[in-house]
Amino acid sequence: MLDWLMRWPHETVSSKQIYQYAPRAVRSNRETAIKTAEILEQHGWLSRRKTKTRGWRVWEIMRRPVVFPSVEG
C-alpha cells in the first residue's frame, strides 16, 4: 500500500478511496483497509486530518524518499 500511496496523485486520501483504488489485498474488506492506513499513520507516512462529518476518515500523505537497501550477494 505504501508504494500505491507514493503514486497517488492527490495530497490526501480517504478511506473510501482506499476501498476503491488501493491494491486488492488491502481492499478485501473495510477493517483491513483501515488497519493498514493506521499502521502507515503510526510509522509517519499518513497524518489524520479532521473532517466535518463524523465517521469519515481522511489522511494527508507525508511524502518522503523511500530508501531501498542494497543487498550484496
Quick structural gist:
The chain is an alpha+beta fold and 73 residues long. It has three helices and three strands.
Helix content: 25-40%
Counted up, domains total 1
Q: Distance between the terminal alpha carbons, to the nearest Å?
A: 28 Å
By DSSP, the count of extended strands is 3
At the fold tier of CATH, the topology name is Arc Repressor Mutant, subunit A
Radius of gyration based on Cα positions: 13 Å
Average pLDDT level:
88
Any low-confidence stretches, pLDDT <50, length ≥5? Answer: none
User: What is the SS-derived class?
Assistant: alpha+beta
Count of DSSP helices?
3
Largest sheet: 3 strands, antiparallel
By CATH reckoning, the class would read Mainly Alpha
Strand content: 15-25%
Characterization of the model:
With 73 residues, the protein is α+β, with helices and mostly antiparallel strands. It has one domain: Arc Repressor Mutant, subunit A (Orthogonal Bundle), CATH 1.10.10. 36% of the residues lie in helices and 15% in strands. It is built from 3 helices and 3 strands. The chain is globular.
Question: Which terms summarize this structure?
Answer:
Arc Repressor Mutant, subunit A; 3 helices; single chain; 36% helix; alpha+beta; globular; 73 residues
